[in-house]
Design a protein that fits this description.
Structural class: alpha/beta
Number of helices: 8
Number of strands: 9
Shape: globular
Largest sheet: 9 strands, mixed
Radius of gyration: 18 Å
Strand content: 15-25%
């Protein structure tokens, strides 16, 4: 295949919901209005008791698979979605989050040459309010070259702007209630051979969520995950340096 040829990867976009009727419609519309058509959309709902499923039914013909049943939490639902996916890439777009532009997936696909699909595609994230108004770019920006060791400095890439080849993906570890996505990204990155920074703002991220609302518990989990992957001494030393640097900046 010539390097000038273009590949047409399929994206499996998975949205996990629970009582998200207020914010879900924008998310669905941001997926179904994509100008790129090699997309399968999957929604996994945790047996919502509000009008979430009414919103889903409104767009049912545009969604490949829908599940609504009790689950063991966010990451259990994400595992269900992953098990149903058939695309080349997995993308988790939570209720309330949206693709940045109608042609975001088109731009990502256009950036892939004919020399094979990278194992990981990633980009930047804009933080928005409930009306979709831009607030700021995410504090941590993705590095030009991403490796599994990059995550020693924290979650450098927002989970929603991190696309993984499906065959590399493993189930989320349900021992972690708040930061299983961080652990998952590190595990996937350990297996990845090729990564590509799309240099795009990929998603608009709603400025709230499970991790934000449970910040302390999330940080404790993230410390445990870092210690597991990078070693306890290295993790403690790095956190001490973070504290010293914060003090010096005052």
């Amino acid at each position: 295949m010539h390097s000038s040829a273009r590949l047409t990867p399929t994206f499996s976009v998975i949205t996990v919901t629970y009582n998200a009727a207020e914010v879900l419609e924008d998310t669905i519309q941001s997926v179904i209005t994509q100008t790129y058509h090699h997309v399968e959309y999957i929604i996994v709902d945790g047996a919502s008791t509000d009008g979430t499923m009414d919103v889903v039914r409104k767009y049912r013909s545009r969604i490949r698979a829908v599940v609504s049943e009790p689950d063991k939490g966010l990451y259990d639902a994400m595992n269900k979605g992953m098990a149903m996916a058939t695309g080349d890439y997995l993308c988790f777009l939570n209720a309330g989050d949206c693709f940045h532009e109608d042609d975001t997936l088109q731009q990502i696909a256009r950036g892939i040459g004919g020399d094979g699909l990278p194992d990981i595609l990633y980009g930047d994230t804009a933080i928005v309010d409930k009306e979709g108004h831009f607030l700021r770019m995410r504090r941590l920006s993705p590095p030009e070259r991403l490796t599994w060791k990059s995550f020693r400095s924290g979650m450098l890439v927002c989970h929603q702007a991190f696309f993984v080849r499906r065959e590399l993906a493993e189930p989320y570890d349900l021992r972690y209630r708040y930061s299983a996505d961080f652990d998952w990204c590190v595990r996937v990155m350990k297996k990845a051979r090729t990564t590509r920074n799309t240099r795009l703002t990929v998603v608009d991220y709603l400025d709230e969520g499970l991790t934000t609302r449970n910040h302390t518990a999330s940080l404790k989990e993230r410390f445990r995950i870092m210690a597991r992957h990078y070693g306890l001494l290295s993790t403690v030393a790095r956190h001490c340096w973070f504290v010293i640097r914060a003090i010096l900046k005052r």
